[in-house]
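hi! just following up on the protien thing from before. the input was this:
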Amino acid sequence: MVSSTDRPTLVLVGHGMVGQRLLEELAARDALAGPDRTDGPGGAGGTGDDRRWRVVILAEEERRAYDRVHLSSLFTGTTPEELNLASPDFFADHDVTLRLGDPATAIDTTTRTVTTRRGSAWHYDALVLATGSYAFVPPVPGRDAPGCFVYRTVEDVRAIREAAHGARTAAVIGGGLLGLEAVGALRSLGLETSVVEAAPRLMPGQVDTGGADALARTVGAMGVHVHTDTAVTEVWTGADGRVRGLSLSDGGSVQADIVVFSVGVRPRDELARAAGLDVADRGGIMIDPQCRTSAPGVYALGECARAADGNVYGLVAPGYRMAEALADTLTGGQGSFTGADTSTKLKLLGADVASFGDPFAPDAGGSVLWADSGSGVYKKLVLGPDGKLMGGILVGDADAYGTLRPLVGARLPGPAASFLLPAGAAGPADTTAVLPDDAVICSCNGVTKKALRDAVHAGAHDLAAVKKCTGAGTQCGGCVGAVTSIMEAQLAAEGVETGPGGLCPDFTQTRRELYEIIRVTGIDSFTRLAGEYGVPGPDGRPPHGCAVCRPTVASLLATLGPELGLRHILDGEQAALQDTNDLFLANLQKDGTYSVVPRLPAGEISPDHLIVLGEVARDFGLYTKLTGGQRIDLFGATVDQLPDIWRRLIDAGLESGHAYGKSLRTAKSCAGSRWCRFGQRDSVGMAVELELRYRGLRSPHKLKLAASGCVRECAEARSKDVGVIATAKGWNLYVGGNGGVKPRHADLLAQDVGDEELIRVIDRFLMFYIRTADRLERTAAWLERIDGGIDHVRDVVLHDSLGLAGELDAQLRRHVDAYHDEWRAVLEDPAKLRRFTTSFPAPAGPPAPGHVQIRTHEGDWRSVCLLEELEPGRGVPVRVGDEAEAVALFRSPDGEVFAVSDTDPVSRAGVISRGIYGAVDGAPVVTSPMYKQRFDLHTGACLDDESRHLPVREVRVL
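and the predicted 3d structure came back as:
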């Protein structure tokens, strides 16, 4: 028998979503032992700090807990690892023993031991059964034939995907929630799909006949063959023994190379039954409100349990409520579970479907209906005899779900019909305001209205912060509208400004507003924009700008350059606005050198280009590295080397890869149909076309694209701002993906589109994003912030709901026509080339008018450059005699000259002269390009860190 420590042991049988949630709830209560903790005995009924459990998990699957709610995303590019609910660090931090692939096979409640498949015996002080459920397969002939599947696990998905190769048709038996999800998954594999439901309508447990009719019309319009009120009598096979179709009880038949059974689940209660625990006649381990079974020290939760109200709950939200109640029980708390809200909102085959409360309750108070058969919309509210909301159904348009669900059991704050009217019609003035503080707004995570208000009061002043603090809106997302309303109401009550605010102290307008001002007025310089729309400084003059607004305006001018007649980002005043990467068209590194990245569309590279890159790296002493975007990065180039490196690359037929700008970076690709045996389309060719079309397009943040040749998704397209995945019928277009610190899977924008339509939709999506996004806002954050989210964007770019399609198309065409290689343009312009130096040469001859002089350490004055060489708002590096360190000279737009050390005090790299000039409260400052610290050019003081300082030099102009 395994006995790990003298600490109390909790054995968890099963490691699904609900089991993992239990562990997280215990961790949140500081009730899990860590590897270095030696707390005394604990368990239910304990007090103080003696209730920390040593946990052993006995899991049947070979993988740790994962998100089954989003299992369908595995068909469209998500990896199993991305669905994991806990990192290995969680188990290490809490000293959890995780036994994968070693399920419990027997329980002895007398000796309190659990035996596993591999023969281990574990003693428990508390045993939690979280064994979940299994898919029920009706006893029809042929159900075991090759090609028949259930749809419950990652392995099920893998098997279905493998079987789809070479298949043409598929059928799903069962038209409920999971069945329709399976239909969508099979369609994403390019299969002609049918669904068979024995009940008279689809989703019989969630919607009524009217809602099901609307759903069936929508599903049918997508090419799915719907068969209701008929049962499968046989799965018939071909000569090879594999599935070929279904026979139906109404005499019909369905062709299918793949069959997926999704007719319901049954509790996994066999382990409990064999151990003598009380099990319900209809299945399910009997538990009380504290999740206790009939055996002392044994608990159950999730789909394997029959709750105190007599129900088995197959949704994750009730399982989470059980986990919270059991965590309380195991730590001596008073939590209980006596039933749960089974409201649900989801998107099935592109159609929004939601039900809440009791949608089938007797409508003694009447029911209110709104339907539009043409658009597939059906909405129904059921009112009780006292006029209170009993429940409802929303099909085709479920935007009101987040507002209506918390109102169940209350009187509506307005006419019932107003909640069902189409968008834009008169609706209720307020909704969430009438809810009590204990109303549960997020049923997935049990977040109340009071918890949301408390989070705002504590400082969570935007939706992202509220989500992070409370967990509301992070599961199904159906409550986001209500969460936002409560947040905004609380902010208003506390007097917190909720408007977008200005770009910076120099502009009261946002980036979006400045974009429109420049686009409409034709303003083509920062000076004009600041003069007409900037906030005057203390002296009443237009602002000089700062490290926020100057690069932002530079980006806007670059984006709108074709309309404004501007050609290069380093022309004239524009150069003084650029951050160091854009100023030198390369990426600054920590030692002050730069990296050079030539464009390699889709990662394609010829042997000749490989040789050139190797020779350049060798000749200039550069470090080379392959990037994640399928390019080659050359590190270690000094400023003065950059033009010579570019010249070698351009002569070989290469060009700028724009790795330095807030613009398109790469269009990544897999091998596609050119080489891969699974490839359905030429993803390489598509990626090349996309990269060459959008190269140089300046945007609010960097843009990453990818093209995958099949649903295996080797190019990771769903983690990109724009990703395309080949299907049997065309391309699926995903937008708003993101990797990095806050990963986000992209949303499906368009499905099965051809090449020409794909390009047109991407054109409009990118230009609409550029037009409406905030500064440094990636497409992922933009989609989550913008009103209406992906649905609104889809309406704009696919259906031209705002009438902008023509403008967006024309603007992108102008960008394509105006494109030029920024490296080549510098090489062709001597004025631009002069900036690429480690120090400007001192003027020859004796001191003369127009010389800029700096006092040496010995006290005499030395000429270092000519005043005319100093561009207003931009620094230059100079040498004072034979001094080792360079000096950074800056000239303000008003003509004042400043001199400070060129050495950044943090990195010790000579880069201050490459920083952005600006002003703070009227004082001239430079922002270091290295770590964005601001330094007063009069005093050298750092405005962001009192411990940092720039030496100031005396300077004069003759």
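The radius of gyration is 33 Å.
The chain has a mean pLDDT of 88.
cheers
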